[in-house]
Amino acid sequence: METKKRTWMMERFRIMSGLPQRTKMRIATRPTKVYKAIWYLENMRNYFRDIEVGGKFTLYYDDETKRSDKECYYAQQLGLTFKKA
After folding, report:
1. What pTM value is reported for the model?
2. pLDDT tens, residue by residue, 41-79
3. Which residues have C-beta within 8 Å of that of residue 26, sequence separation ≥ 6?
4. Distance CA 10, CA 81 (A)
5. DSSP tag of 69
6. Contact at 8 Å (CB) between 46 and 64?
């Protein structure tokens, strides 16, 4: 168990440092609460992302998007940013 724990910690360190992974372990780079909020906003409210341009925490909206009243909450608590496309 110690070996697996050390491997997991090293993989997490490599990802956070920007180094390539050495194993096929799936390491989360953002908290589950943020992941679920992004999923909800994309699938239920029609926000969309462009990871190459805005990064992982930027959501875009247009005229067809059902804007959320909780955008201030998402921005302050979860670190998301919202931009008009």
Report:
1. 0.69
2. 999 999 999 878 877 889 999 999 998 888 999 999 999
3. none
4. 30
5. T
6. yes
